[in-house]
Amino acid sequence: MFGLLAFFAFALGAIVGSFLNVVIHRYPREESIVFPGSHCPHCNAPIGWYDNIPIVSYIVLGARCRRCGMPISARYPLVELANALFYLAVFMHTGATIGFLLLAAIVSMTIALIYVDAEIQILPDVIDLPGIVIGIAIGALALGASYTTLTVSSSL
Question: Which domain covers residue 33, as residue numbers?
Answer without folding.
Answer: 2-155
